[in-house]
Amino acid sequence: MDSLASAKNARRKGKAIGAIIKAQKIELRGLVQAVGFRPYIYKLAHQWGLRGWVNNHTEGVTIVVEGSEEAIKHFLEVLPQDKPPLSRIDSIVLTEQPLRGYQDFIIRESQEGQRLLTSVPPDVALCPDCRSDLHERKSRYYQYPFTNCTNCGPRFTIVQSLPYDRASTSMASFELCPTCHSEYKDPWNRRFHAQPIACPTCGPEVWLSDHQGKPIEGDWRQKFQEKMRAGQIVAVKSLGGFHLVCHGRHTKALEKLRQRKRRPHKPLALMARDKAVIEEICLVSLAEEKMLTGPQAPIVILEQRPSAVTKLATLPLLTGVMKTIGFMMPYTPLHELLFADDLDLLVMTSGNQAGFPLARTNEEALTQLASIVDAFLFHNRPILSRADDSVLRYIDGTWHFYRRSRGFVPDSIALPIAVQKDNRGHPVSTASQANSRTILAVGGEMKNTFALLGGDSAVLSQHIGGVHTLEGQENFLESLQHLQKLLDLEPELIVCDRHPTYHTAQLARRWSKPLLEVQHHHAHFIATLADHSVTEKSMGVILDGTGYGDDGTIWGLEIITGDYRSFQRHYTLRPLPLPGGDNAVKKPYLTAAVFLGEAFGEQGWEEAKRFFPEDAKAITRAKQMVEQKINSPLSSSAGRFFDAVSALLGICKESTYDGQAAIELGEEVTLRLGLAGREVKRAEIEEALSLGHYPFSIRKKLPRTIQKTSQDSLTKAEQNKENCSLLRYLDYTEILAGLLADIENCTDKGIIALRFHNSLALFINEAVKELAIREKLSTAALGGGVFQNPYLFTMVRHLLQAQGLRVLWPQRIPANDGGLAFGQGAIAKWQGEEGSIISKGRC
Amino acid sequence: LAHGDGGALTYQLIQELFLKYFTEGPLQQQNDGALLRDLPGPPVVSTDSFVITPYFFPGGDIGKLAVAGTVNDLAVTGAEPLYLTVSFILEEGLLMADLESIVASLAQTAQEAGVAVVAGDTKVVEKGRGDGIYINTTGIGFLPEQRELGYQRIEAGDKILINGTVGDHGLAILSKRSGLAFDTELRSDCAPLNNLIATILEKCPGAVKFMRDATRGGVATTAKEIALATGKDLLLWEEDLPIREEAAGASEFLGLDPLYMANEGKVLFIVQGDRAQEVLEVMKEHQLGQESAIIGTVEKGKREEGHVLLKTFFGSHRILEMMAGDPLPRIC
Ligand SMILES: [Fe+3]
Ligand SMILES: [Mg+2]
Ligand SMILES: [Zn+2]
Ligand SMILES: [Zn+2]
């Protein structure tokens, strides 16, 4: 195998100029299909007077050029430099060929063949050229909702199989008109080989229907906009599924949407007609602007301006107590056409009912959404794969995925090359240990994604969401089948979570294939390590909601050491029972009562009743459940600690959506650091720390009460005592005592929330410091959904970096369960070929 | 209640107690075995042991339960229960008054169910070796002609019926045991259903294809057993499930699903689709079936394994698996 670098060397040695004619074969891998690569090569070859051909095949792109050595040299030099903006070259292999004497340079038809994991192109947002075509009266694409070119348009959501050609997309049934055909065939045209090319004559069309599906006569655009102005809700068939759309400034419409979708508090995402509209409401940094208007065009969580509500009166209805708001830009021509001079802001929320995935087909939308919407905006270009909008946030100078889906999926993520060090620190090649089998990691239970691993890369699926319903499972299975077919991979080894009742794990256990069960937080830990191609033993700081622990209790605050094979738990949160399990998770005031009861005994329970007088009865019942051990599993989850504090501060007593209490608590402190859009300075960290924290203690032993209320599972853990002698518990008693005193003294709740965050960050800092010295480790990987809390992330990152540690956090994948499958897969990859083994965690 | 050598007197008391309440049939003859004559059809036998804390609970007690449980097990096979044997294991220290009221309740339930207690036994164990009282009952009945019930008769299009509200027994026991106070007292549905079942089978001959009492594991687990045995999908409709408001509230709080809570007086009936309404009307006329409802339908299995699906208020379908202990939190 020859690399480009060595090719350059070879050229430097070359002697003759001009006269010598040679033939060169160039094989490219990476994101080189459906990104305008072949026309680029075509033009480049013509530019240098080269002859030969280029084609797409399942492994990538192959080019053969014949011409003067000099011309080939230039061609090769320029090739990677001026490549199309959406493309990515992972490898270039050069081989010399015998001369064939080609007369011209042509683009050959795509070929099928054997292949390794190759990249399937993600969908690309409307490009500036196509946007101007839309508004250009003289253009044949004027106001045509499906125009696209090699630089933009649908990819993943319309492709059936590879190679990516029109015939293998859902555009296959639309026969090109002569004009489109000539543009498609013209290498000098922007739409040359744009597979989904279409125009009003030959392409798909849009129509508006009433809520029963009866078509509405007249200009769809005008009618749609009238409906928006009248405060109606319309289900719009977008790129990767339906959106529920209404006027972003229409109070009644928003109230109606919240009520009909049974979504009282969860913030609603907005689509803005242009950048200026967003900038009126939010502070937008350069990085954020680039992301908003870039090829992925995701939802970006932005900080609201202090004066935002004067510009957007409906803001409280849109975002509740949140001081941020999710914005995106029109990413398809259809979206672009939804807006008007007086219609600059549309709510765009996912088009599904509770328990369902996004409505994908017109029929699904009709049955699922009829009770929510007043009308449908349909079209007849089938969506083959669902893709929810991706959500990102720029925190402390780096991007964080809240959801990785449309625009990013199914681009592959390179896996670390397996180099491990032996105990003397010498690198050991572990290529033989890396699992060469194709791996399917099924992910978690909520916010599910799955991952397929083959060769040296992983493909993380689009957001699948909940899998507890038949519809959710069908979505999971269909998406899996589709991606398997696209990548031409047949899983040989399955990885799932160890949770006994995760639906994904139950499915996986039924497949008769080698199975590996992985502890939830081990997977979060390795997800971060693998994201940074780190394979040596490291420390992990995992703060999460719920993960089934190896001792049968629910974990969620793990400070660990370990590698892909195993891990050791060193610090956790003092566990406490959760009466009613998930019911306590949905009702943070109950969790708060248990925290107080566990910390302060009878007094604590009484205190809880004073906090929540209207729930005194429920609290008494919860106490009884805890004492009688009725459905009260033990939990050491950091997420629950956030929930409890959120309830005690009167921020969120009951969660109406996943993580609400913790998210809203985090929101109280986020803006303290002015985190949006920039890196935080050391002085600002110091200043935030100077606002105080609560004392905390780290214990070697659980207090008696815990041992008394513990369930069998804890007894099991106690039996493993020799293994657990290292385990330390963060006791919440002192933190709560300090917090209660602050509440008593009427301290500002923002300050209390900040001190709580500081306490946790300082605990982590102290624990990791001790661990780094004792275990002689210098890398700490952060993971778990709690690290989506911007303030906590920033504090922990800076504190640990100040210790001189290398701090890693998830960057190509989400920190929450959306990235779990990636970690599961990476673990399986390095478990070797030993068959079905269980990833071993201790304590 | 004492035990051992000095317990002869106690034993005597117990014997007298039983004879006082079981005034009919072979038991009075005090023979070692009871001769059961003239069974009008093939005999059907079922046995069950009853272990429950607390043994007195709202809506019943272990005595009533011991009769209802075994009678219902017989009845759902299509049999007519006739006789019962009863065996007690008593723990030293059990109050005589408690024992007497349990025996009285057992006798009364047997009488209501129309079954005769024909043999019995009592053992007393040391204190600490039992939970006050265990009862084993064996029921004997016969299968009348033309009562062919079985999995093999179940087909797509059949309807699923239940004779009343779901989850009451399990929740009543749990709240009584733990002293959990809910606004309204939850009562066990414990009752012998042989009369209800016989009425349905007589008035609607051939309509019922299969029956199963939804005891431990609740309606969901029972339905899943049927799904697994037949390979068909059982679709339940959330909006048609009879659940008492107080039971729904309590189970939400407990984080437990009423569909998985035990019942002791509820049977799932799989009924030929076009006769479901007819069966429902007969059920509703019976005192133990006033709140009966058609709660779902049998469908052709979509995957290799039969599924139980609960169609929710929002239209999505929750997948119901067998009960596997307390539900662990999953929200991350
Ligand atoms: Fe997690
Ligand atoms: Mg039984
Ligand atoms: Zn374009
Ligand atoms: Zn055309």
List keywords for this structure.
heterodimer, A: 843 residues, alpha/beta, DHBP synthase, 5 domains, ten-stranded mixed sheet, globular, disordered N terminus, B: 332 residues, alpha+beta, Phosphoribosyl-aminoimidazole Synthetase, Chain A, domain 2, 13 strands, binds fe (iii) ion, binds zinc ion
Short structural summary:
The complex is a heterodimer of chains A (843) and B (332). By secondary structure, chain A is of the alpha/beta class. Chain A is 35% helix and 21% strand.
| Number of helices in the DSSP assignment of chain A | 29
Low-confidence stretches of chain A: 1-18, 113-117, 707-717, 719-723, 833-843
- End-to-end CA span of chain A: 47 Å
Global morphology of chain B: globular
Summed up, the domain count of chain A is 5
The CA-CA distance between the termini of chain B, in Å, is: 52 Å
Helix proportion of residues of chain A, in percent?
A: 25-40%
Oligomer: heterodimer
Number of strands of chain B: 13
Q: Uncertain regions of chain B: pLDDT < 50 for 5+ in a row? A: none
How many domain regions of chain B? 2
**Main CATH class of the largest domain in chain A:** Alpha Beta
Number of helices of chain B: 8
> What is the residue-mean pLDDT of chain B, rounded to a whole number?
91
Structural class of chain A: alpha/beta
Any chance you could write out the topology, listing elements then pairs?
The complex is a heterodimer of chains A (843) and B (332).
Chain A: H1 4-13, E1 21-31, H2 37-47, E2 51-57, E3 60-68, H3 69-81, E4 88-97, E5 105-107, H4 128-135, H5 178-185, E6 206-210, H6 220-229, E7 234-237, E8 242-247, H7 251-260, E9 270-272, H8 275-281, E10 282-283, H9 286-293, E11 299-304, H10 308-311, H11 315-319, E12 324-328, H12 333-338, E13 345-350, H13 362-369, E14 375-379, E15 391-395, E16 398-403, E17 412-414, E18 419-421, E19 427-429, E20 439-441, E21 451-454, E22 457-460, H14 470-487, E23 493-497, H15 503-510, E24 515-518, H16 520-531, E25 538-548, E26 554-562, E27 566-573, E28 576-577, H17 582-586, H18 588-611, H19 616-628, E29 634-637, H20 638-648, H21 660-670, H22 682-690, E30 697-699, H23 704-709, H24 712-719, H25 721-724, E31 728-731, H26 733-744, H27 749-775, E32 779-783, H28 790-802, E33 806-808, H29 820-829, E34 840-842
Parallel strand pairs in A: 2-5, 7-14, 9-12, 11-15, 20-23, 23-24, 25-32, 26-29, 27-31, 27-34, 32-33
Antiparallel strand pairs in A: 1-3, 1-4, 2-3, 6-14, 7-8, 8-13, 9-13, 10-11, 11-12, 15-16, 17-22, 18-19, 20-21, 21-22, 25-26, 26-27, 28-29, 30-31
Chain B: H1 8-21, E1 43-50, E2 56-57, E3 60-61, H2 62-75, E4 80-91, H3 96-113, E5 116-125, E6 133-142, E7 159-162, H4 168-178, H5 194-203, E8 208-213, H6 218-230, E9 233-237, H7 245-254, E10 267-271, H8 276-285, E11 293-299, E12 308-311, E13 317-320
Helix pairs in contact in B: 2-3
Bound molecules: fe (iii) ion, magnesium ion and zinc ion (2 copies).
The site of magnesium ion has 4 residues of chain B, from α2.
Organism (chain A): Heliorestis acidaminivorans
InterPro entries (chain A): Acylphosphatase-like_dom, Acylphosphatase-like_dom_sf, Carbamoyltrans_HypF-like, Carbamoyltransferase_HypF, DHBP_synth_RibB-like_a/b_dom, HypF_C, HypF_C_2, Sua5-like_dom
Enzyme class (chain A): ligase
